[in-house]
Amino acid sequence: MEWVWSMLNGWALFLGALTAPLTAIIVTYIAVQQYKLKKFEVRKELYDRRVNVFRTLKAYLVKIKENGRCEHSDTLKLPRETAEAQFLFDRDVTSFIEQVYEKSLEDLKLARKFERATPKVRGEITPEQNEVLDWLHNASVDADRLFEPYLRLRACLKSDDNLKGGK
Asked: How far apart are CA 50 and CA 48, in angstroms?
């Protein structure tokens, strides 16, 4: 019988010795899972912010297509509503947004000039204004192409590269 007690005592000591390493393994596993979850949350937040800039720009461009011109109030809002882009995207996207804004300002300037012009001068302004509006109409397709690497959801949620710029 003593033999059984000594064996049980040996097992108790052995299991007691395993408690600390086993606890460390479990704590490490939980920490790794929390790290992965936090990383996922950061990627999701980045995606949400990026898609918000994209939607703002697309809505602006669609409104230009629908109205056939730029609206002054919408154009002035564009830089404010897309300001976060400089922190979320590489230079290609931010420079494109700046280009859209500059072309919109150009359209507003030409529209103002057109309203005050004589019929002869209007004939000279119209081709220039049409060129600007054509550029803005085509910008929607360019926006899709430029934003696509940053908004590809599968890549965004898997890759660490997406945190650095999306490519």
From this structure: 5
Over residues 4-47, the pLDDT tens digits come to 777 777 777 777 788 888 899 999 999 999 999 999 898 899 99
Specify the residue for token string 């490490």: 28
Helix (H) / strand (E) element for 145: namely: helix 119-151
- Looking at the chain, the number of H-run helices and the number of E-run strands are 7, 0
Residue 49: partners with Cβ closer than 8 Å, 6 or more residues away: 84, 88
Mean pLDDT score, 38-65: 94
pLDDT 10s digits, 111-129:
999 999 888 888 999 999 9
CB 131 within 8 A of CB 11: no
What's the angle, vertex CA 161, arms to CA 157 and CA 165, rounded to 5? 100
146, amino acid identity: L
Q: Could you tell me if 85 and 93 are in contact, meaning their C-beta atoms sit under 8 angstroms apart?
A: yes
Q: Which pTM value belongs to this model?
A: 0.77
d(Cα 150, Cα 90) in Å, to the nearest integer?
9
Q: How far apart are CA 120 and CA 17, in angstroms?
A: 96
